[in-house]
């Protein structure tokens, strides 16, 4: 075992160069075109990408911006969120889902998650709606849509706008309907680790309503119209033409990337089953990700559950074997120091807290090979066998 480390090829958690290398000439040519044009902002490639994203999301408009985080902030600004308002967000998500609420002086109301999907729990949203609730932000975590039919029905009954955080889920759908087309506004990120990963920061807003689309454009450009006339305080958040030009090239391959992620996910289910690790099979100990039958899942992450306090030891073991893994997310947002003023105590959102202790994210990027996946599963199997020897299993106890 000890000598293995030096012989084996590492399995990276993510290797963006594998998809980018294939497109090198095409992307560099697209960048050169922008270079020569001198139109570094508002170039035609921005519009081209916006149209492609709007088409994918089945929305009338899409508006480029500087990041997924800015997309969320702009969405809340566009629907008029301000001090005193309450916005319901899941606690088990990336920071940006909640920071936009705080930044506008509004109150973050954290909801717990459904332990199966890791997405926001609809019943908990219902419990937390008050007369001050002005928005709900479901997150399509790891590439799987939240329960948008139930969430939108609940929100419509209370006349509350829904902002979709689709940063991890471009190309995903629920009941055959694309994410970003369910709520009033959908927020997309082109951060390099996302399913449509750019070459730096970038984001986009998908929106059906003409007035909202126009407001988003205004707010993303200093609230300025016409030039040097400011009707309100906007921000400066644009998608660079360079980013857009490169993304136009990659966008053509998005369906293939997502299909490859789905294939990799299916292979993991088979390999875990074969290794007897799947907690649903006899004696298994690893919790496989739950696939909502209504969801078209695009697998930004493949997340297993490692119960029994073994998660960190497994991660350390995999790291020793040069197998990449990551913890998304180790601390639920209601327990972050900067959100202590929100007034949550340990135990308030038990499923978010449990997920943070048990979750482990494995490599799932499109170009990951079957051999690499076998290595990942073999590594986990070896760890589980040695862990079972040390700790009496349930069957023995
Ligand atoms: C990545 C991400 C964001 C932020 O996107 P950036 O482009 O990095 O600003 C927001 N929400 C979720 C759930 C994310 O995963």
Provide a concise account of the structure shown.
The protein is α/β, with parallel strands linked by helices. Helices cover 40% and strands 12% of the residues. The C terminus is likely disordered.
Written account of the structure:
40% of the residues lie in helices and 12% in strands. The protein has helices at residues 4-7, 16-22, 24-37, 44-57, 68-78, 96-103, 122-128, 148-157, 210-219, 241-251, 254-274, 311-320, 350-358, 370-390; strands at 61-65, 86-90, 107-111, 133-136, 163-165, 173-174, 177-178, 185-189, 203-207, 295-296, 302-305, 359-362. The strands form four sheets. Strands 1-9-8-5 form a four-stranded mixed β-sheet, sandwiched between helices. The two termini are 29 Å apart.
The spatial strand order of the largest sheet comes to 1-9-8-5
Give the percentage of residues in beta strands.
5-15%
Strand element count: 12
Low-confidence stretches: 391-397
Query: Class by helix and strand content?
Result: alpha/beta
Total of DSSP H or I helical runs spanning 4+ residues: 14
The end-to-end span amounts to: 29 Å
Order of helices and strands: HHHHEHEHEHEHEEEEEHHHEEHHEH
Provide the gyration radius in Å: 22 Å
């Amino acid at each position: 075992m000890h000598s293995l480390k030096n012989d084996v090829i590492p399995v990276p958690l993510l290797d963006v160069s594998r998809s980018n290398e294939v497109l090198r000439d095409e992307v560099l040519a697209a960048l050169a075109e922008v270079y020569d044009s001198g139109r570094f902002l508002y170039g035609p490639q921005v519009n081209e990408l916006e149209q492609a994203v709007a088409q994918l999301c089945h929305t009338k408009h899409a508006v480029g911006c500087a990041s997924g985080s800015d997309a969320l902030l702009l969405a809340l600004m566009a629907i008029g969120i301000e001090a005193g308002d309450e916005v319901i967000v899941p606690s088990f998500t990336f920071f940006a889902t909640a920071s936009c609420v705080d930044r506008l002086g509004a109150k973050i109301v954290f909801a717990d998650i459904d332990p199966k999907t890791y997405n926001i729990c609809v019943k908990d949203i219902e419990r937390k709606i008050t007369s001050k609730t002005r928005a709900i932000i479901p997150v399509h975590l790891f590439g799987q849509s939240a329960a948008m039919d139930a969430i939108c029905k609940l929100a419509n009954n209370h006349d509350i706008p829904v902002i979709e955080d689709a940063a991890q889920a471009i190309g995903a759908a629920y009941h055959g309907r694309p994410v970003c087309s369910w709520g009033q506004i959908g927020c997309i990120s082109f951060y390099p680790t996302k399913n449509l990963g750019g070459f730096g920061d970038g984001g986009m807003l998908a929106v059906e309503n003409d007035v909202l689309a126009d407001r988003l454009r205004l707010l993303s450009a200093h609230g300025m119209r016409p030039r040097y006339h400011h009707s309100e305080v906007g921000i400066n958040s644009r998608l660079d033409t360079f980013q857009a030009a490169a993304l136009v090239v990659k966008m053509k391959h998005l369906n293939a990337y997502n299909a490859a992620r789905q294939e990799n996910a299916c292979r993991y289910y088979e390999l875990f089953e074969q290794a007897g690790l799947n907690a649903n099979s006899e004696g298994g100990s690893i919790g496989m990700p739950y696939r909502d039958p209504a969801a078209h899942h695009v697998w930004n992450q493949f997340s297993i559950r490692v119960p029994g306090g073994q998660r960190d030891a497994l991660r350390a073991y995999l790291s020793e074997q040069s197998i990449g893994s990551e913890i998304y997310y180790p601390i639920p947002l209601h327990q972050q120091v900067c959100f202590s003023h929100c007034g949550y105590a340990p135990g308030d959102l038990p499923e978010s807290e449990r997920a943070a202790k048990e979750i482990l994210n494995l490599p799932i990027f499109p170009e990951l090979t079957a051999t690499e996946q076998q290595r990942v599963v073999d590594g986990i199997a070896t760890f589980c066998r040695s862990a079972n020897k040390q700790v009496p299993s349930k069957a023995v106890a």
